[in-house]
Amino acid sequence: MKQLQQGKKKLQKGFTLIELMIVVAVIGVLAAIAIPQYQNYVKKAALGSALATATALKTNVEDTIAIKGTFPNNTLSFALGSLKLTPTASAADGSIIATVDEGPAQNSTLTLERDADGIWTCKVEGDSVNDEVTPSACEFSSGS
């Protein structure tokens, strides 16, 4: 009787091949959903960082306009890329262009434009971004 019980215990150790295949299939489906979603979160974070950096720079731009009367002309860098301050035809208006040079949002630009009345608008462009990852304070432009 003991031998029969011991033999039964040996047969019940481990998982069957079908159980392992089901687990691998479930993990594959979850990964297929999670990886693209993760890429969108990373793009959104990169654009959020660009927006935060450019928004912080607006204070300095407003200060320069108040003191010197002109929009500054400069190029700076931040963690994910570069910032370019570009004046336009009028002395008090221009744009801050944040270009993301790294990561999944690479080659995308976030532009803060200031008009002569001091109103700022935000626009995002790039092949690797879409309306879903654009910060809520900005509008998405397909670039074409």
TrEMBL record:
Cross-referenced Pfam families: N_methyl (PF07963), Pilin (PF00114)
Membrane-topology descriptor: Single-pass membrane protein
Chief location category: membrane
Alphabetic keyword roster: Fimbrium, Membrane, Methylation, Transmembrane, Transmembrane helix
InterPro entries with a match to the protein in the record: N_methyl_site, Pilin, Pilin-like, T2SS_protein-GspH
NCBIfam families: IV_pilin_GFxxxE (TIGR02532)
PANTHER family according to UniProt: GENERAL SECRETION PATHWAY PROTEIN G, PREPILIN PEPTIDASE-DEPENDENT PROTEIN D
Annotated family: Belongs to the N-Me-Phe pilin family.
Protein name (Swiss-Prot/TrEMBL): Pilin
